[in-house]
Amino acid sequence: MGSTRTMVVYADDDELVRETIAAGLAHEGWQVHTCPNGAEAIVLCEKLQPVAVLLDLDMPDLDGFEAAERLRHGAACDPVRIVALTGRAVEGVRARALSSGFDTILFKPVSIETLSAALAP
After folding, report:
1. What is the mean pLDDT of residues 44-72?
2. Residues 6+ away with beta carbon under 8 Å from 67
3. Most buried of the four, 29, 45, 75, 99, by CB within 10 Å?
4. Which among 82, 11, 2 is positioned nearest to 43, based on CA atoms?
């Protein structure tokens, strides 16, 4: 199934963005497993035990904030890094992300190199 040291789960409801970023991360050596929402990200995390999780903040069903909180406090998964990726650069979003359990927050557009460095343990 691949090394968990390079495995990342990535949730984003925008399919084109998800596919583009997943391809870029794969090019950087990451084994990427994608899904369209936070609920599915938690299921994948519990199954795969990745080293990192990348979450969009605004998703249907379960947003990135709630998914991060569940991953940090209760899910059967303990990723080393949880990174938020969002286009929502509004006041307070960084503080809310960090209080939800994210290690860092990145704003779209972001280079694959920056994203890869943020995911690394």
Report:
1. 95
2. 11, 38, 39, 41, 42, 53, 55
3. 45
4. 11
With beta carbons less than 8 A apart as the criterion, state whether 11 and 102 touch.
no
Say how far apart CA 50 and CA 32 lie, in whole Å: 9
Angle subtended at Cα 26 by Cα 25 and Cα 29, rounded to the nearest 5 degrees:
95
pTM confidence score: 0.92
1 pLDDT band, cuts 50/70/90, is very low
Stated length of the chain: 121
pLDDT at 98 over 90: yes
Residues 41/26, Cβ–Cβ less than 8 Å: no
The C-alpha atoms of residue 76 and residue 89 are separated, in whole angstroms, by 31
Q: In what order do the strands lie in the sheet with 104-107?
A: 31-35, 7-11, 52-56, 81-86, 104-107
Q: Where are the domains of the chain?
A: 1-7+27-78
Does pLDDT of 90 surpass 60?
A: yes
Strands (E), 5-120: 7-11, 31-35, 52-56, 81-86, 104-107
